[in-house]
Design brief:
The protein is about 10% helix and about 45% strand. It is mainly beta. The chain has a single domain, classed as Barwin-like endoglucanases (Beta Barrel). Strand 4 and strand 5 form a beta hairpin. The relative contact order is 0.36.
Length: about 120
């Protein structure tokens, strides 16, 4: 049996941009992606603490050390610049492996979205 487990979490980052005219996705500072073990194109669940919205899209890397968190395409309608988000990815693991698995959890500086 396989179970879904939290693989990665970037906790409490602020939206820096919303680009309705982009194809889609969320742009994430590549340093944050690396720290959270998120790869380009990976499915990401977005939880908006300001309005309760939850949505899924895929990650694309943004400039390193920029703190960029930009929602693109239709997802841009679900956020406002300055909203606080939690970004989560999941993995499917065999149940015994899942019991031992430790997710990558990142707590960036809330004022800049940069790694502490």
């Amino acid at each position: 049996m396989f179970v879904h487990v939290v693989k990665s979490k970037i906790h409490r980052v602020k939206v820096t941009g919303a680009d309705l005219n982009y194809i889609g996705s969320i742009t994430i500072d590549e340093d944050l992606m690396d720290a959270a073990n998120i790869i380009s194109g990976e499915k990401v669940q977005i939880v908006n603490n300001n309005n309760g919205e939850r949505l899924e899209t895929y990650a694309i890397p943004g400039p390193r050390n920029s703190g960029e968190i930009t929602l693109n395409g239709a997802a841009a309608r679900k956020v406002a610049v300055g909203d606080v988000l939690i970004l989560i990815t999941y993995a499917m693991l065999p149940i015994e492996e899942a019991k031992q698995f430790t997710p990558a959890v990142v707590f960036p500086d809330e004022s800049s979205n940069l790694l502490k």
